[in-house]
Amino acid sequence: MSNDPFAQLKVIQREGWSLFAPLEAVTTATAAELVRHARIRAGQFVLDVGCGTGVGALTAARAGAKVCALDLSPVLIQHGRQHAALAGVEIEFSEGDVEALPYLDSTFDVVISQFGHMFAPRPDVTIAEMLRALKPGGTIAFSTWPPEHYVGQMFALVGKFIPPPPGAAPPPQWGDPNIIRQRLGDAVTDIVFDRSVMLFPALSPQHYRKGIEETLGPVVKLVAALKDEPAKLAAFRSELDGFVAGYFENNVVRQHYLMTRATKK
Ligand SMILES: C[S@@+](CC[C@H](N)C(=O)[O-])C[C@H]1O[C@@H](n2cnc3c(N)ncnc32)[C@H](O)[C@@H]1O
């Protein structure tokens, strides 16, 4: 394995995220929200980064856009190709890293990411790549988890138990409008934020926890890392259950998220 800590992190992330496919059941509806927020129209050339099984890409393609989609995980991309075939749409899927996009400058009318680019460790590199691939006047739009709500708290908790390599930014920073404004900087105009809630069905907080321990990359990896440290694992589970309890009602966990849209200058 490479000595580069970020390359090592991505090897771990690629494997961890490969179990994500069942969670498309909850990201499908929010993908439609992001495609609406991004104002994607028929005929536009769209890129979905951190596409997972392609829920955003597929929604854009069904709206008539020409779509490329990229993800670290070849397993998820394979699911995406099957989805596209089933829906009868063409999407060009690629395995790759949002920090090094394999597209020419100024290629796309719209670049989107639903809970994807936020997991790349270097926000400055990530945003520079997303904007590089976008045409001047094009739209960048993404959904992210705010630090003050449940999912942001959960990722902060994961980071407390398994700290990321030095220099890697915590993913929930991408859910803070002030930080987003700084990161987009002078490269964009017309930043627009909107907020929504993902409803995650579960029979109990414990069912919810078991589900994400089996599917949500960073949590899958954390549970595996703590398998010989039962006290630490119990502490993690207890803290997680405490966060979930505050957002669990009527058999759903309410997962608040932020949507951002901006225009490249
Ligand atoms: C929470 S999932 C979201 C997947 C999909 N966008 C959805 O909404 O269902 C995060 C995705 O980001 C991808 N990802 C994480 N880091 C990445 C990187 N550096 N480059 C490309 N994809 C990345 C993961 O492989 C995973 O598919």
TrEMBL record:
Chain ranges of the Methyltransferase domain: 46-138
UniProt keyword list: Methyltransferase, Transferase
GO terms, biological process: methylation; sterol biosynthetic process
Xref: Gene3D superfamilies: Vaccinia Virus protein VP39 (3.40.50.150)
Keyword Methyltransferase: yes
InterPro entries recorded: Erg6_SMT_methyltransf, Methyltransf_25, SAM-dependent_MTases_sf
UniProt keyword annotation of Methyltransferase present: yes
A Gene Ontology molecular function term of the record: sterol 24-C-methyltransferase activity
Recorded superkingdom: Bacteria
Signal peptide: none
Name this polypeptide is given: SAM-dependent methyltransferase
Species per Swiss-Prot/TrEMBL record: Acidovorax carolinensis
